[in-house]
Write a structure and sequence with these properties.
The chain has 2 domains: about 100 residues, no CATH class; about 110 residues, no CATH class. The chain has 7 helices and 4 strands. A 4-stranded antiparallel sheet has the order 2-1-3-4, with helices on one face. The relative contact order is 0.11.
Length: about 230
């Protein structure tokens, strides 16, 4: 026993070092979008590759069309393979110890911003009720500007139809009882590129309307709800 006690400081230091190494390796980001070729073909991603390729050509580099994307894709797949091999050595310990991280934190800086638009149909025309971030269209802003709603909007944008449809039905029920002359409620989500530093007001509530990509849309008739 005394022999074990003499070695305990070294054993403890070894275990702590192993645990820290396991946490560091398992914390290496591995976003699913890196291995989905369809995500690399999104217009926003293609536009970024085009801008970066143009900047590199401006520095005198010779690049064929698509060369930068192919090189980045190859590097990303190599990184994922190496990360997977390293992580596999520590995953049994992580499961046994009961620690882990279910999502990537601070993986990269966001290059897109989304806005939810809720519009009411009267006399065949839609008018805005709520626009996230707007100072003018503030219907149900106390509920819709909450942090929990931000998470729900994120689910909707990423394609979770159940969350999106449930939110639209909830908003439609509120609108049906509050606006008796309305015939439908439309919920849409637009995604915009983050403006460059020299145009910070492009996405300001009182700035010019940005040109965004319509990502999701649903129209709920209000008559059957009443």
């Amino acid at each position: 026993m005394r022999r074990w006690l003499r070695h305990w400081p070294h054993l403890r230091a070894t275990f702590v070092a192993f645990h820290v190494l396991a946490v560091l390796v398992l914390s290496l980001p591995h976003p699913a979008s890196l291995k989905r070729a369809s995500d690399w073909q999104r217009p926003q991603v293609q536009a970024r590759f085009a801008r970066l390729s143009g900047a590199l050509r401006g520095l005198g580099m010779t690049l064929e069309d698509g060369a930068l994307q192919r090189a980045t894709w190859s590097a990303a797949q190599s990184y994922l393979r190496v990360r997977g091999a390293l992580a596999s050595a520590f995953e049994p310990y992580a499961r046994a110890a009961g620690f882990g991280q279910g999502w990537s934190l601070f993986l990269s800086s966001g290059r897109e911003v989304s806005r939810v638009h809720i519009e009411l149909e009267r006399n065949g025309r839609f008018e805005p009720l709520f626009v996230r971030g707007s100072r003018e269209h503030r219907w149900l802003s106390r509920e819709l500007d909450g942090d929990r709603m931000r998470k729900l909007f994120g689910y909707a944008i990423r394609g979770h139809d159940d969350a999106w449809n449930a939110f639209a039905r909830w908003a439609a029920r509120r609108a049906a009882h509050e606006f008796k002359d309305a015939t439908a409620l439309r919920v849409r989500t637009f995604v915009y590129d983050v403006p460059p530093p020299h145009r910070p007001r492009d996405l300001a509530p009182d700035g010019p309307p940005p040109v965004g990509e319509l990502r999701r849309e649903i129209v709920v008739p209000l008559g059957p709800i009443r």
